UniProtKB/TrEMBL annotation:
Region: Disordered, residue numbers: 1-30, 443-462
A biological process from GO: 'de novo' NAD+ biosynthetic process from L-tryptophan
A Pfam family of this chain: IDO
Species this chain originates from: Sanghuangporus baumii (Phellinus baumii)
GO terms for MF: heme binding; indoleamine 2,3-dioxygenase activity; metal ion binding
Keyword Iron in record: yes
SUPFAM superfamilies: Indolic compounds 2,3-dioxygenase-like (SSF140959)
Protein name: Indoleamine 2,3-dioxygenase
Protein family according to the UniProt entry: Belongs to the indoleamine 2,3-dioxygenase family.
Keywords annotated in UniProt: Heme, Iron, Metal-binding
Amino acid sequence: MSSPTPSPPPHFLALPRPDALAGPPQGVPDTTTVAAHDFDIDARTGFMPPQPPLSRLPEQWEAWERILDEAIERHLKLGTAQDLTPVDEATSDAWRRRVRELPILSTTDLKTSEVTLRRAHLALAWIMHFYINTLSPTSPLVIPRSISIPFLEVSDYLALPPILTYSDDVLYNWKYREDAVSEGQVPLPTANNIAIQTSFTSTPSENHFYLVPAYMELRGATALSLMSRIMDEAFVRDGIALRRISYYLVHLARVIDDLRTILMTMRDGCDPEVFYHEVRPWFKGQDSMHGGRKWVFEGVGEEGYEHLKHPTEDELHGPSAGQSALIHAIDIFLGVGSAASSSASSSGKTGMNFLAQMQNYMPRHHRAFLRHLSFNPRQLRALVDAETTENRNPELLSAYNTAVTALRTFRDWHLGIVAMYIVSPSRRAGIGNRLAATEHLSVEEAESSGEKGTGGTNAMTFLKGVRDKTASTVLKKN
Ligand code: HEM
């Protein structure tokens, strides 16, 4: 007699989340992200995870955590700092020597959990940026094998570039404030209960610099749910559905206005001088290096490491909020040319290609979401265009244009932030200082000299271009 067929296990989506450290039991899919099957977006927190990211790797990789702690506790100074003393240099030298002496830890067991991999990417990225940016402005930029090998492997598993990304300093870099959580309770993250886990300088300005975009991401959850509702109504597309779309679009415009208001709270806690001179230089990618020096990832091409590939130039831009999937999603949804046409495969360092390139720096589920959004067969702009011919549905036209204009205004104000945090401090610093040539040019000078943003763009020209593209997305009807 044959044995009875075992009853099917409960659907994996109904299973409890596995322990982030232990990973899922054998044969059970990893559901440690909220909805890895569904773009890892949470209806309440948007692109931010609804539970705090892992704050420390399991014991096996404690050496990375310890060396990162040490860099932070010793307040390592930038190799380009004007006030660098011989003691500072010796402290950084000793720390870098200890990094080189670390064993090459295996990354195989990290693969059991997405959240563990994320923490590994974060830890290794911060260590690498500490390492590179404490070097003197003329040193060769060699990332030692103890870091380069595991970092290239972890980045490969996550399909991310091996560099600090927006997800490492914002999305997965928060914890609950100690005074905000009572025992046994796990609240949702809000602007009132989160703090930052890791920073280069431990200054309030740097913490605030990461918190503001985190607050924006949380507010952005409403934008994502409005988009989803609008897409449902677009499917129905009758008179009532069009009226509802108008209503939701006006609501979306208000949410974008809120994002702008939150952006401007940057001024409440981030000092432009501290940001420009002490925080921003830590973000430098390969393209912002003094003297155009290239980064070398040790181990690549060596025997036993044939699986490692040296990152390309396009994979070594420093972190930028241009990597926030939220703003890209709004762009694509409203049909702003910049992002709507991006396929993340285009190359090139300037203009709209830059935004497409930035998608490669986003967590892969979010990148997949943007791709999904851009392939939506019922594109909103085309719908509004078609439904408002011959003066029909003026309410819909106006609602759509209100949302686009809110986004354009957001970008106007963002330009103001860039002026305040990059242009003005660079002017005050003067441009006589050639040592920090890439950091000390005004935007006008930058435009003519090719000064770059941390993401490697000719910052102001690029940002104005995207703002103008947004402005030209407004639908005009005669
Ligand atoms: C002190 C604060 C900020 C400064 C100095 C700043 C500066 C810049 C710069 C220079 C760029 C050009 C790209 C690059 O090379 O990195 C950029 C792009 C961008 N930034 Fe910011 N940024 C700040 C805060 C924010 C925040 C909080 C957000 C919100 C998520 C944001 C959203 C964007 C977006 C979406 C882009 C891509 C261009 C666009 O879509 O218009 N920025 N930013």
